[in-house]
Amino acid sequence: IFVCPLMCSVKQFLGLLKKMDVNLDTISTKVNSAVTRLEKKYDVSRALYQRFEKCVGISGKEILRSCWTMFLLAKGGALQMEDDLVISFHLMVCVLEFFIRRCPPSLLQPLYRKTDSFPSTTASFRTSRRNQSKAKPRQAPPEVDVQLLETLCKENDCSVEEVHTTFSLFTLVACQATDLSKQYEELYFKSRDFDSRLFLDNDETLLTPKVEPTPRKNLPEDVVLIPPQTPVRAAMNSIAQLRVDLITSGDQPSSNLAVYFKNCTVDPTEEVLQRVESLGLLFSQRFGQAVGPRCVGLGKQRFTLGIRLYYRVMESMLKSEEKRLSVQNFSKLLNDSTFHTSLLACALEVVMATYGGDNGGVPVETDLCFPWILDVFQLTAFDFYKVIESFIKAEPSLSKDIVKHLERCEHLIMETIAWREDSPLFELLKRTREEGPVEQAEPPATLNQPLQHNHTAADLYLSPVRPSSRTLPAPESTAPPSSQPSAPAPHQTPRHPKSNSLSLFYKKLYRLAYMRLKMLYTQLLTSHPELEPIMWTLFQHTLQNEYELMRDRHLDQLMMSAMYAICKVKNVDLRFKTIVTAYKNMPNTNQETFKHVLIREGQYDSIIVFYNLVFMQKLKTNILQYASPRPPTLSPIPHIPRSPYKFPNSPLRVPGSNNVYISPMKSPTRMSPVMTPRTRILVSIGESFGTSDKFQKINAMVNSSDRSLKRSLDMSSAPKPLKRLRFDVEGQDEDDAESEKDKP
């Protein structure tokens, strides 16, 4: 339990906790998880209250208090995941419909005063701040006014279908509501986090510190500045855009897909439909378990969107393959269950990310975030990775945020998820190693070039996954003897087909590994440029030849160990404490990566213990070679990674400018962009742009734009090591053990 000595806001309190964790071991993993959940819940609650103030449609302080309190009860009582922004907002719309329908017209905003359209059932909402027991809605199940609900949904860019489904969650709370204040207090003391009713009083503990706006200089006249979107508005826009994109797609195979199915040697139609049905039931049940038992219907709605995207992308993929290969029979691919499950999982991940994404600052991680879908379908991460790139290329309507999300999923797979104990990756590596070394590091090439390959999902799913330990006999031939291939010479060894999926996986893995190493190295060792290629050589050697070290571990654990090992052998003073301090500043990091490392089966410890007891013991001979007069040959540096995916509608920077971008006009079928620049200028050039004065203003803006480069890292100084890093004494390296003597 943390006690704050001074009155402070929730945000200030959370910031204080982060400062208390300066030693990296002050806050346990369990407490850190609870604090993270608290922050997510607060951010969602604050975003919802901001929206509540704008869309409530009712006047009267006590009625507003009753309305907000009933919403909190509905959210806390019906949802196991109170940080789900979308479902929570849909619940709020249901509560607003309930109260608006019962308020007299004099208390309603003009939009809702149409008493002939919205029959009012007057109810007493008089409550006091200390006791709201007089707010007693009807005990009978509330009947929804469809027309009023449609109006509310239209005003808030919601799907009527989804909100109507959510109404059943609200009904349960409305029927049991007798004393709103007492019921909420019971809920509050049960959760013991923060009292969301205080939003109504503008309580200082729930306010966020105000940030001074950045001064805007040299802005031309007649410039339209787009205000930032609220988290709720951004979420509703993203969902609405997804629904627009899928409006022409059905939840059954299209006629074009049906033709592809019939062209197969073995028609997959029946198995495809049966698989979709069984996975749909499984998805809805698991969705209900994660969100709330009464949310199965919402899970079915999201699955339906996923099915539409699944069929749509499948058809696009097959068309591309037909054009590439000039064939129409895809029987082997379309009868591959893993391919279909992976493709459907990817479509559902897009849907789930759209509903639970980073909407205007609200945290992205929820109980439904990746790799939840893999656990639901019992799908291995290595199989799922095969479809990601082809999926993105086959669906150009994906937003930039969704593409980035799928790329992040791919990185998570390569960093840790594909290396879990039961992953087929290890068996494939073992079999492939018998045939020769794993995919070699890439040869030197021009920096900033994307990864070049021609593999599609079909290539990856149909390539060998578990090569046999013996070659298959050659098929019999009816050709004349003179036309038959000659037998291999005695010294030749028959080779198995190369696994395209493993080859591409390692190409991407090397790029990601080098990118992570480069980030960390840039913070710590720019004064020793000669060490970077040596560190990369050890890191790459480990991934290629000692891949068992990755089993149930994280890529970054090997990266930090390789960096420390080379510094030790080259007599460069770099402590693990300093490495971990810099590591925390890198994107996509977690304290468990260096505090909870597998040592042996069932035993976990710090990164320093892992280095001494596992990494050093396994690679000691190889590490010491770098101190010899004849060190190992350096591995070539791979391409610096860059996204292989193109965004046709993404803004392009004007050459020579710092903040000027140009993007093509949107398609008429696309909605307004969700992008909400806070300090940028949006200029739309169309047929009615006007006189040349505006062009001259644009030219002046470009010419006067600040062309200074972004502030670079201070390469001359490494981050200061932490005052104390409480790793277990057992297994510490010699230098760090000495430093422990000075501890109080």
Automatic annotation (TrEMBL):
GO molecular function: RNA polymerase II transcription regulatory region sequence-specific DNA binding
SUPFAM superfamilies linked: Cyclin-like
Zinc in keyword set: no
Compositionally biased intervals (Low complexity): 473-492
Pfam family, one: DUF3452
CDD domains on file: CYCLIN_RB (cd20599)
Region (Disordered), start-end ranges: 120-142, 468-499, 703-744
Assigned GO CC terms: chromatin; cytoplasm; Rb-E2F complex
Alphabetized InterPro entries for the sequence: Cyclin-like_sf, RB_A, RB_B, RB_C, RB_fam, RB_N
Major location (coarse): cytoplasm
Retinoblastoma-associated protein C-terminal domain: residues covered: 623-744
UniProt domain Retinoblastoma-associated protein N-terminal: residue ranges: 1-102
Protein location: Cytoplasm; Nucleus
Gene3D superfamilies according to UniProt: 1.10.472.140, 6.10.140.1380, 6.10.250.530, Cyclin-like
Transmembrane segments: none
Bias type Basic residues, positions: 127-137
Keyword line: Cell cycle, Chromatin regulator, Cytoplasm, DNA-binding, Nucleus, Phosphoprotein, Repressor, Transcription, Transcription regulation
BP GO annotations: cell morphogenesis involved in neuron differentiation; chromatin organization; negative regulation of G1/S transition of mitotic cell cycle; neuron projection development; regulation of transcription by RNA polymerase II
Protein's UniProt keywords contain Transcription: yes
Similarity section: Belongs to the retinoblastoma protein (RB) family.
Protein name in UniProt: Retinoblastoma-associated protein
Organism: Oncorhynchus tshawytscha
Lineage: Eukaryota, Metazoa, Chordata, Craniata, Vertebrata
